[in-house]
Amino acid sequence: MDLSKGTLQVKTSEVGARVSFLQKDNKHFIFPQQIIKERDRDMMRGGMHPCSPIFGKKTGEFNAIPQHGGLRDIVWQIKSQRNNSVEYECKFELEGYRLAYNVCYRLLGHCLQAMTIIKNRLNMPVPFEFGWHPYFFAPNGADISFIGSGTKPIHIDQSYGPRIFADNKIVEIKLHNIGTVNLLFGKGFVDRYVCIWTDNKQYVCVEPLLSHPDDFNTEKGFFLEPYKPFDVDFIMWFN
């Protein structure tokens, strides 16, 4: 599905409800989705996709859930679409979960807004994580600042992380010779976590997270209440 607003152009896919391509002023801010060779393996990289109901990979009773939850491999249904927005929906049923997801991408001027509604269709709370996995195009390196948290800026030009930072009002990503992206946290992201990681000099992943992955299924972790819709959203502002 192609979306456009001014000079901002985005392509999305039913597979994983992904953003597969994003550019503004004919500059790639998101590393386009593609298969690359990493450690002698073909790996899908690029674009942006939701991660849920887990982030990363879990052990024990949740071991059967694919890395990052498996939403990126599901074929979603298009619920609605316009020139500047598209809405996807899917059902997730695996290993003690019965979830309904609704993801909407909307272009607003220089911004991409990602809005998600999740509903737990079981009659009990379930341990839950949610995050986004964007690959920002950074062939010339990137400088990342954490506005509001007091954390010192970091420079990325090689493999890094994963490392998690909390309590960020805004995360500013300066992509050298491309432009700047500001991540603004909306509903759901109470602690405003981001995970920063890269295994390739072409991109850096700055991933908004609902909670810290180490807190999953603990007293500090997040639990999704039954039948009550949960909203989470964030905005990427491109300059």
Task: Give the secondary structure arrangement, pairings included.
Blueprint: E1 2-5, E2 8-13, E3 18-24, E4 27-30, E5 34-38, E6 41-45, E7 48-51, E8 77-82, E9 85-94, E10 97-108, E11 111-120, E12 126-127, E13 131-137, E14 142-147, E15 154-156, E16 160-165, E17 170-175, E18 179-185, E19 193-198, E20 203-209, E21 223-224, E22 230-238
Antiparallel strand pairs: 1-2, 2-3, 3-4, 5-6, 7-13, 8-9, 9-10, 10-11, 11-22, 12-21, 13-20, 14-15, 14-17, 16-19, 17-18, 18-22, 19-20
Short description:
By secondary structure, the protein is mainly β.
Give a description of the structure.
The protein is mainly beta and 239 residues long. It has a single domain, classed as Distorted Sandwich (Beta-galactosidase, Chain A, domain 5), CATH 2.70.98.10. 0% of the residues lie in helices and 56% in strands. The protein contains no helices and 22 strands. β1 and β2 form a beta hairpin.
